[in-house]
Amino acid sequence: MAPLLRATSFLRHSRLHHLRFPLLLLLPSRSLRSTGPVVASGLDLTNPTYVVWGCNTGVGKTLVSAGLAASVLYPCSTDPSAVLYLKPVQTGFPRDSDSRFVCRKVSALFRRHEGGSLSGLLASDHVLNASRAAAGELLGGRLEQPDEAEDGGAASRGLCMYEETRIGMGEAKEGESKLVCKTLFGWKEGISPHLAVKREGMPVEDSSLRELLGRCLGLSLGGGGDDGGKKRIWRVIETAGGVASPGPSGTLQCDLYRPFRLPSILVGDGRLGGISATIAAYESLTSRGYDVVAIILEDQGLSNEVSLQSYLRSRLPVLVLPPIPGDPLNNLLDWFCESRQTFSSLQAIMLSAHIKRIQRLHDMPRKAARLFWWPFTQHKLVPEKLITVIDSRCGENFAIHKVLNDQEMIIPQFDACASWWTQGPDSTLQIELVKDIGYSAARYGHVMFPENVYEPALQCAELLLDGVGKGWASRTFFSDNGSTAVEIALKMAFRKYMSDHGIHADFHKLGPKGSGTELRVLALSGSYHGDTLGAMEAQAPSSYTRRGLFLDPPECFISNEIWSLSLPDCLRSNHLKPEDTRFSSCAELFCPSRDTSAVAENYANYISKQLSDFAASSHSIQRILVRECQSRKIPVIFDEVFSGFWRLGRESAAELLGCQPDVACFGKLLTGGVVPLAVTLATESVFEAFQGDSKLLALLHGHSYSAHAVGCASAAKAIQWFKDSNTNANFDIERKMLKELWDVKLVHGLSSLPAVQRVVVLGTLLAVELKADGCDTGYASLYASSLVQQLRADGLYIRPLGNVIYLMCSPCTSPHFCSQQLCKLHQRIYEFSEHRRKE
């Protein structure tokens, strides 16, 4: 430790005009595992922050980074500047160190022009972690083996290596520019990072790397501090190798850094073959949602920039650097000076793009309030300041824009309503869906469906009938959304009922009244099936028709840690005991043996009476209802637009009920939630009811985009992904269901809070009904509005249903992440309870 003390003392007392000294500290590497959510605190985008990508290794990323930093820090500037350069992954270390190169070259360029300097420069290079082999190389091989007990046998060392240079200004630090360079992780061999890890050790999880990178991006560089906020600050991240080169874990870097989605500079290739490599790299970035603001490449005499500009159709500029000297002894200072104008142009392009982005983010709420007509929204209740600006999405999280303490922040926010129950992908599946959708769009565009067949539609139908329709369905009818899927199902059921009961309709007058017999829909009160007129016939109360007959179902929930049934008045009986409506677990509640219970007997009597008067909650009443309807040849429709594809922990809610329908509707999670698509599955007997010699006997319903190839391709990928334990860690392959996603103890604790009326948890869904009275209950209630805003500030995008708040994860969301969100919810509802108690 003595050399470190001497060096720091030297720094404190030095009067040298130019100062460079190294500090080296080796520490045992205890853990390189993440301790929290990725980019949990958000990203400050107040100042330009960019990622420098290369279409390959050796195309000049580090030269571009150094040239850009020099342009920002050029000593003739009237105001001090600051540049943070980050190299997350470095191989070939310490012989090769891009952060050291940037630090020293920029310092040398600053020193060359120091005569006209209006400010000084403090430049530093800091290496945070290196493999044991790299650290040993740095110390000339003098690295002792760690004690097994002390170091855990780790093949890595935490490395704290620091080098600093001060140019000009003497001891005066006011108005001084700064260059801070950091290497986060380094390995000795100059090979791909994932291979270096395999050979040298020091594995780094993706989340750990992103967490450290996020912390480094949050470092203060003096802007808005002692210098009065005049300092211009830039942040530059340089990747390793090419766009799709693996990171330390093997994850492609274009996927590794996707949660940040920072704007990008692409260093192209001016050599033979460089046009193809540059275009491929560009498309890899844009297909993942990155914004590339410029391409820059070295002039190799082949005019590659001309072809690139033609391909890009002026979407972004292509800049050309002078040829790089091939002499290894050339210090490149003259080349940097020759390239100064190009780097100045690049800096101006980047700054302009940054300003335009921030301005657009600020303009969006105002324009949205003026231009949009949002569904299910009373606009008078949504002030401009409460409009959420979504910059992007990554897996389960939105990336939203907020101004906090005068800082432009991009903050992750858990999509707790699953964007109206549609969302299923984690960040990995999101990228996979994009690939399949892009391929399908490129291959097919859109082709019409009737009397045609193409692979995405056929594969999707095969997977549906072998999955959610297995054992009962034989036909797939595609439509655009859940509401129309329900309307189609109603048409199927009407025809099937008429066919089975010998009712001969005049099919020239289509509709349920065409035969002179009015057909009605039997459904459950409180259900929702969509907002088209036909779908609204199947839900109460109907604002448009009176064709529905609605049964009041019992409701199941958790209260004070106990699963319970709440019975409507029509099902209450003096013969029922308290234990008839209380259960030890969700599994007991769903047990088929309950069909012979006292409560089930009441169900059967109630349903039989309604059916005899008419001539479809709790799963037990639904089973009995299905049985009673099918015994009377009344077609049964399951609306699984919401519940299908693992939303409730099973691929189909029919598995929970233990019975099968005649017709079923699916949507939302069908495609993973990326694009709209719906299907109505039917039995062969339902299909046969539409057979005949006249086209008028056919099911005359369709959409221009029926079975569109893009949606079918997305559905095929999602269906397979969710039930493959290799891709979805939550899938229990033995029980064919999802593992428990919500911690039982946390759920029970939530159900016991004074402000909580009841809790329902099933599969990916957790719903909490808050205790409320009178006008504070129901869909129109604003009772939970203050709680909602607090939860949004905590990083949960909540959209309540009156006094009901719910969390909805994806089938792929980790239980650990679910527990984190549940803890936030518990804390806020506890505070809400205390506040209400004191009122």
UniProtKB/TrEMBL annotation:
Under Pfam families, the record lists: AAA_26, Aminotran_3
Keywords for the protein's UniProt record, in alphabetical order: Aminotransferase, Pyridoxal phosphate, Transferase
Q: Is Hydrolase one of the keywords?
A: no
The answer, when asked if Transferase is one of the entry's keywords, is yes
| Example GO BP | biotin biosynthetic process
- List localization entries: Mitochondrion
Q: Name one GO cellular component term.
A: mitochondrion
An MF annotation (GO) of this entry: dethiobiotin synthase activity
Q: What is its main location?
A: mitochondrion
Quote the InterPro entries the UniProt record gives.
Aminotrans_3, Aminotrans_3_PPA_site, P-loop_NTPase, PyrdxlP-dep_Trfase, PyrdxlP-dep_Trfase_major, PyrdxlP-dep_Trfase_small
Give the Gene3D superfamilies listed for this entry: Aspartate Aminotransferase, domain 1 (3.90.1150.10), P-loop containing nucleotide triphosphate hydrolases (3.40.50.300), Type I PLP-dependent aspartate aminotransferase-like (Major domain) (3.40.640.10)
Q: Which PANTHER family match?
A: ADENOSYLMETHIONINE-8-AMINO-7-OXONONANOATE AMINOTRANSFERASE (PTHR42684)
Name of the protein in question: Aminotransferase class-III
Q: Which organism is it from?
A: Musa troglodytarum (fe'i banana)
The opening ranks of the lineage are: Eukaryota, Viridiplantae, Streptophyta, Embryophyta, Tracheophyta
